[in-house]
Design goal:
Number of strands: 4
Order of helices and strands: EEHEEHHHHHHHHHHH
Shape: globular
Strand content: under 5%
CATH topology of the domain at 130-283: Serine Threonine Protein Phosphatase 5, Tetratricopeptide repeat
Strand order of the largest sheet: 1-2
CATH class of the domain at 130-283: Mainly Alpha
Distance between the termini: 72 Å
Radius of gyration: 25 Å
Number of helices: 12
Helix content: 40-55%
Largest sheet: 2 strands, antiparallel
CATH superfamily of the domain at 130-283: Tetratricopeptide repeat domain
C-alpha cells in the first residue's frame, strides 16, 4: 500500500515560480488574493502571474464568498429585559451613556418604592440617571461627549446630522463621510451601509456602483441587514437569483421584513421554491418570537414622539 502524502508535515513548500524552498529562503509569502501558492520575491510573483491569474481569481472569489455569506451571531440582548434587541434602530433606543435598550423598556413605567409610577424618574436614563435632553443644544452636548470618547454610535449620529443638516449642524457631506468612516472602523456596520448608499445614488459623491457594492458588502459582513437586503436587490437586478436569495434569506433571519417580501416575490415568479419561502417564513417567525414582549407591543402602539430620546 502506498504511503499517504497528504500529511502537511511532509509537504515541501516552494516558490510557485522558481521552485526555491523554505530551506533555501525563509521569506516565502502567500499570494495575498488566493492564499494557495507562495513566492520568494515580488519579482517571482509578477513573473508567475500570467499562468496563475485565472486560478487565483477563481479561488479569491470563493474565499470572498465564504466571508460574505458567513452567518452573523444575533444582536445582543436588551440589558434591562434581557430579550434580544430588535435588529433595526426603530426597535431600540440609544442612551446618553452609550447603551442601547429596547423601545419597550424605554416606554415602561418607572415605579417608586411604593409601587406608584414615578413621573420624575420616567425621563431619566435608567443607567446613569441623567435627564433626557430638552433641547437640540443639550442633545448635541451629550452626543459630543460620547464622540470624544470614541463611541461609534455617537459618531455615526453626528455623521447623520452633517449629512442632513440637522439639529443645528450645517450640511457637510465631507464631514459626514469622515464620521461614517470613523464609526465604521469602530465596528458600526450601518455607517458603511450609508456610505454605500451615497455612492449608489450620488449623495454628496459621484455615483460609483463598484464602491457602493464594496461598502454594502462590508456592512453586510458586519451584520447590517439593510445592507444585506441592498445586496440582494443588486444581485436580483443582475439576474444572479441564487445569490440574491442567499442575501435575502440572511436578512430575513435578522428580521428584515422587506427581504421576506422579496423572497415571496421570487417564489411567486418561480425563482424560489416553496421550501425556500417556507424557510423564510419560519426564520422570520422565529425572529419575532425572540424579540416579542408585552412592553414592546405597548411601545409600538405609541408614536415615537412619546419616547425618551438621547
Amino acid at each position: 500500500m502506498s504511503s499517504n502524502n497528504n500529511n502537511l508535515d511532509d509537504i515541501v513548500l516552494v516558490c510557485a515560480n522558481c521552485g526555491k524552498g523554505e530551506e533555501e529562503s525563509s521569506k516565502l509569502k502567500n499570494c495575498n488574493a488566493c492564499k494557495m501558492v507562495k513566492y520568494c520575491s515580488r519579482d517571482c510573483q509578477v513573473a508567475h502571474r500570467p499562468q496563475h491569474k485565472k486560478e487565483c481569481k477563481k479561488r479569491a472569489a470563493e474565499l470572498h464568498d465564504i466571508e460574505l455569506f458567513k452567518e452573523i451571531p444575533p444582536a445582543e440582548d436588551c440589558p434591562i429585559c434581557f430579550l434580544r434587541l430588535p435588529t433595526l434602530h426603530t426597535g431600540r433606543k440609544y442612551m446618553c451613556c452609550g447603551k442601547f435598550i429596547c423601545s419597550g423598556c424605554i416606554h415602561a413605567p418607572v415605579y417608586d418604592q411604593g409601587n406608584e409610577v414615578d413621573d420624575d424618574k420616567q425621563n431619566e436614563c435608567p443607567f446613569c440617571r441623567t435627564l433626557a435632553p430638552k433641547s437640540d443644544l443639550e442633545l448635541n452636548g451629550m452626543r459630543e461627549k460620547r464622540v470624544e470618547v470614541g463611541d461609534a454610535e455617537a459618531i455615526y449620529g453626528l455623521g447623520n446630522n452633517y449629512r442632513d443638516g440637522m439639529y443645528g449642524y450645517p450640511q457637510d457631506y465631507t464631514k459626514a463621510f469622515e464620521c461614517y468612516h470613523r464609526a465604521g472602523e469602530l465596528g458600526h456596520a450601518l455607517a458603511y451601509n450609508d456610505i454605500g448608499y451615497a455612492y449608489e445614488f450620488g449623495e454628496g459623491v459621484e455615483i460609483d456602483e463598484k464602491k457602493a457594492n464594496h461598502y454594502y458588502e462590508i456592512a453586510a459582513m458586519g451584520g447590517d441587514v439593510v445592507a444585506r437586503h441592498n445586496l440582494g436587490i443588486k444581485e436580483g437586478n443582475a439576474c444572479n437569483l441564487d445569490r440574491a436569495l442567499k442575501h435575502h434569506m440572511m436578512a430575513v433571519r435578522g428580521g428584515y421584513t422587506n427581504s421576506l417580501k422579496r423572497i415571496q416575490k421570487l417564489y411567486s415568479k418561480g425563482f424560489a421554491t416553496k421550501d425556500d419561502y417556507r424557510k423564510a417564513l419560519h426564520s422570520y417567525q422565529e425572529y419575532l418570537g425572540e424579540i416579542k414582549s408585552k412592553q414592546r407591543d405597548e411601545a409600538a402602539a405609541y408614536d415615537n414622539d412619546n419616547y425618551r430620546y438621547y
